[in-house]
Amino acid sequence: MITIIDYGAGNIRSIEKALQYLGEEVMLTGDPEKIRKAEKLILPGVGSFGDAMQHLNSRHLPEAIREAVSRQVPLMGICLGLQLLFDRSEESPGTAGLGILPGEVLRIPDAPGLKIPHMGWNSLHMQNGGRLLKGIPEETYVYFVHSYYLQAAQEEIVKATTEYGVRIHAVVEKGNVFAAQFHPEKSSRSGLAILRNFAAVGKEV
After folding, report:
1. 79 an active-site residue?
2. What span, in angstroms and rounded, lies between the C-alpha atoms of 143 and 89?
3. 180 contact partners, CB below 8 Å, separation of at least 6
4. Domain hosting residue 139, numbered range
């Protein structure tokens, strides 16, 4: 069972449909107790960092998420969900993120010919191995929609990057915590393969 955290700021239905297409059992919930007891968690997100943290805090979800992570429940952040796992974002000064992984989120710098938000297909450059990208070829294209990008404090947790005026940490993985800046549920077969890899975590022989 994969539990998608529903906190009023998520790209939830498309993720749910993608997982169901893969044959996974899915539950949507904003109940802290169900999140604490989940087998696997996905933290989605669209919108602003500050609004998303406000939604999470108002539902008493940050502690439930941290508790699940501490007992080694696999957690995957997607798009804004990736950003929320880190310490802070330039988008919302003074707002603390979940702090599950160390790093900060910065605005993509303006540059001639560069449209912000970054919307479209970009290729991934793999590094440091990782389970989420198992079987995904170098230069695989995935679909991004974002104006801010992750700068992780630990280079070794970065499993893939992309270039959009700046080097973007596009996939991170540390222990039972995984995250993607792009939308796997909108990234065709490659995105489905990434979600399948997450669904397989803990089932590996």
Report:
1. yes
2. 22
3. 76, 77, 78, 79, 82, 132, 142, 170, 171, 194
4. 2-200
- 205 is a domain residue: no
Residue linked to tokens 């906190």: 7
Q: Is the pTM of this model over 0.90?
A: yes
CB 38 within 8 A of CB 71: no
Q: What is the CATH number of the domain that holds 93?
A: 3.40.50.880
Phi first, then psi: give them for residue 113, nearest 5 degrees.
80, 5
Any domain includes 139: yes
- For residue 37 the two structure tokens come to 């007891």
The structural domain count of the chain equals 1
Q: What pLDDT, in 10s, does the model give residues 176-192? A: 999 999 999 999 999 99
From the candidates 55, 118, 169, 183, give the one annotated as an active-site residue.
183
Give the active site residue among 16, 55, 79, 91.
79
- Round the average pLDDT of the chain to a whole number and report it: 94
Contacts 24+ apart (CB under 8 A), 112-118: 114/164, 114/165, 116/147, 117/145, 117/146, 117/147, 118/144, 118/145, 118/146, 118/147, 118/164
Residue 67 lies in a domain: yes
User: Tokens for 121?
Assistant: 């297909």
Handedness of CA 180, 26, 57, 65 (dihedral sign): negative
Structural domain contains residue 128: yes
